[in-house]
Specification:
50% strand; five-stranded mixed beta sheet; SH3 type barrels; Jelly Rolls; eight-stranded antiparallel beta sheet; 6 helices; 24 strands; 326 residues; mainly beta
Length: 326
């Protein structure tokens, strides 16, 4: 059982099919008098690079990652622990959190399997910084999910990078399934907070035509007022029907969908499958960057219509209005 658990964790932390590939390790050191550094480098195909740096318990680590290849991501792990603190292909290309223990932390840069198989290249910029302890970085009087019990009735999402979204998960931690996404300004009901390691997570209820509950990182939640009328959270959500087909020889029919939008074509789309369940589609700046784990994705654009193929057989057609609103 223990061996199976380790193998499962490794599968989460590495791109599938690349577990046997050699990994280059580089020790990161900050210049004297600084608390961060910027790394510019390149990987090709199945290459992976681990950046190791030491940090103390209670310090705040901030990582941002930009790449010329949308299939390039980073994972964050503690030392040699195979369980990832942050999985880039699921949680996005930025991270900020309070570190749960002192020691080495490992930032792994890699290409997803589809890009690695094509021997694609990714030029990337990795920004890393480490601040003081969590207690010293909190501003007195600031209200960003700073209590585990009580607190305001409503939170407002703030602090996201322009065009980014805040993942809402089925449980308190990045290993849990994404059930929704929020944008800056969205307002959600406060259902209470709890700690998971060194990170504070808050259970929330998202209002709108299709309300749902989940967990979000507390650092992005500030006290907000109750929504009145058509609030920003509801305005960034929509539902309807899109053309779909579940196999290559099946004529197009229609499937129900729901969408939660950020800005500039950043959107999370869930399509109700005829046989039950949902297919998840993740768009960033109008580009399809991912789907459910293990599913290949392909996007072609004709005018304002996005032709999407998932897993080689499923087909969907999404107008730009689904992603951008309007």
């Amino acid at each position: 059982m223990q061996l199976n658990k380790i193998l499962l964790m490794l599968a989460l932390c590495l791109p599938s099919g690349l577990l046997s590939q050699p990994i280059e390790e580089q020790r990161v050191k900050f210049a004297a008098g600084t608390s961060g550094t910027t790394i510019q480098a390149q990987i090709t195909g199945s290459e992976m690079t681990d950046y190791l740096l030491g940090a103390g318990q209670g310090q705040t680590m901030t990582i941002s990652f930009q790449s010329t290849n949308p299939s390039a991501y980073f994972n964050l792990m503690r030392g040699n622990d195979p369980e990832a603190i942050h999985i880039g292909s699921v949680a996005g290309n930025s991270f900020q959190g309070v570190l749960p223990a002192s020691g080495d932390y490992r930032i792994r840069v890699y290409l997803m399997r589809n890009a690695a198989r094509r021997n694609e290249t990714a030029d990337y910029t990795l920004n890393i910084s480490i601040g003081g302890s969590a207690a010293s970085t909190q501003v007195p009087g600031a209200d960003y999910a700073d209590g585990l019990n009580g607190g305001p009735d409503w939170w407002q999402v703030t602090g996201l990078t322009a065009g980014d979204t805040l993942n809402v998960r089925s449980g308190p931690g990045t290993s849990n399934t994404v059930v929704g996404a929020l944008a800056n300004g969205d307002r959600v009901r406060n259902l209470g907070c709890r700690m998971n390691g060194g990170t504070k997570w808050c259970q929330i209820e998202v209002p709108g035509d299709q309300p749902f509950t989940g967990w979000a990182a507390g650092r992005y939640l500030h006290e907000g007022s109750a929504p009145g009328g058509r609030n920003s959270a509801a305005a960034s959500e929509a539902s309807g029907m899109i053309p779909c087909a579940m196999s290559t020889d099946q004529p197009m029919t229609t499937c129900k969908f729901r969408v939660s939008r950020g800005q500039g074509g950043t959107a999370s789309v869930w399509v109700a499958l005829p046989a039950g369940g949902e297919r998840y589609l993740d768009f960033r700046e109008g580009r399809l960057v991912g789907s459910d784990p293990g599913m290949t994705v392909l996007q072609e654009k004709t005018g304002d219509l996005n032709h999407v193929r998932i897993g080689g057989s499923e087909r969907y057609e999404l107008p730009d209005a689904v992603l951008y609103g309007g």
